[in-house]
Amino acid sequence: MRYTTLPKTDIKVSKICLGTMTWGNQNTQDEGFAQMDFALDKGVNFFDCAELYPVPAVPERYADTERIIGNWFEKSGNRNKVVLATKIAGPGDYTAHIRTNGFSKETLNDAVNNSLKRLKTDYIDLYQLHWPERNTNTFGVRDYKHNPDDTWTDNFNEILHNLDEIIKSGKIRQVGISNEKAWGTMRYLEESNAHELPRMVTIQNAYSLLNRVFEGDMAEIAIREEIGLLAYSPMAFGVLSGKYIKRTEGDKARLKLFPRFARYSSKNATEATKRYLKIAEDNNMSLAQMSLAFVTDRPFITSNIIGATSLEQLEENIDSIDITLSDEVMTAIEKVHDELPNPAP
């Protein structure tokens, strides 16, 4: 395994992070336990979860993933071996069963306290805002279109002050953002710098061979401002395993279970995946490992969040850490990207 630190901290994390959003839905608790045991044995010390998980978010399974992790900590005694990240759910129609009052002081304290109980720990290493409160172009929306009726008011400073109190209480160590855009990221950093408030040390956004939108403006922010990307969906919901092209997906494959994530199955996404599959096969790699190796070695990446529904998938994904793509492979990848840029934003 290879390691780095969360930016501007001394918290050491593996370059591969274990994603957990299938536990409690596609995976049982026992399978989640097995994945955590295996990942830790392979040197993965960074686990990411959220109060929203498992996905899709439904009231009857709310926060079951955190409960599974907490049960594993209790059984294994391995809490001190893991850098643990979780998230507070943002506002929206599909999270109304969780709460409807955004990131208020009351909400933040309630969410942190409940996550701590479920996770059976007294601290969280990295606490993240799952997505912005304001209306902006997230989750597959290509372009920003301003809504003049948006009632949101700027509360970046207030949020950071409230997080500062929670940090000082010892319940969380560091804070980060997720599904955020360039303007919001810089506003958080501006408030931190101007008022000596907690600094967002990471941003968790989608990034893969099929979605390199982060490179448009966020990559420069990440590098120059030292806010590290935790890349999620590096396999584009399993599309970049090649199984949908090869017709080897099982009945429990994610896109069969959740066809609403159709952006990964568009005509251009499918064509780009075919081309990436050929590059991988021509260079004696699986498409999965080439896709993950590409993400892990980008200069703005702090950690690459992998997810799997089987130990076989998990092993293949973790082993991608040992692969370095050649200049020839990178050139071939860039050629596809030039011709079919970001087919699944």
| Average pLDDT | 94
What is the beta-strand fraction? 5-15%
Rounded radius of gyration (Å)? 19 Å
Number of strands: 10
**Continuous helix count:** 12
Q: What structural class do you assign from the helix and strand content?
A: alpha/beta
User: Level of helix content?
Assistant: 25-40%
Order of helices and strands: EEEHEHEHEHEHEHEHHHHEHH
Uncertain residue ranges: none
Quaternary structure annotation: single chain
Distance between the termini: 29 Å
Give the topology:
Elements: E1 3-5, E2 12-14, E3 16-19, H1 29-41, E4 46-48, H2 64-76, E5 83-88, H3 105-119, E6 124-129, H4 156-169, E7 172-178, H5 182-195, E8 200-206, H6 218-225, E9 228-232, H7 243-246, H8 254-257, H9 267-282, H10 287-296, E10 301-306, H11 311-319, H12 327-339
Parallel strand pairs: 3-4, 3-10, 4-5, 5-6, 6-7, 7-8, 8-9, 9-10
Antiparallel strand pairs: 1-2
Task: Explain what the structure shows.
The longest helix is centred in the C-terminal third of the chain and has 16 residues, at 267-282. The protein has twelve helices and ten strands. By secondary structure, it is α/β, with parallel strands linked by helices. The protein has helices at residues 29-41, 64-76, 105-119, 156-169, 182-195, 218-225, 243-246, 254-257, 267-282, 287-296, 311-319, 327-339; strands at residues 3-5, 12-14, 16-19, 46-48, 83-88, 124-129, 172-178, 200-206, 228-232, 301-306. It has an eight-stranded parallel beta barrel, surrounded by six helices.
What's a concise summary of this model?
The protein is α/β, with parallel strands linked by helices and 345 residues long. It has helices spanning 29-41, 64-76, 105-119, 156-169, 182-195, 218-225, 243-246, 254-257, 267-282, 287-296, 311-319, 327-339, and strands at residues 3-5, 12-14, 16-19, 46-48, 83-88, 124-129, 172-178, 200-206, 228-232, 301-306.
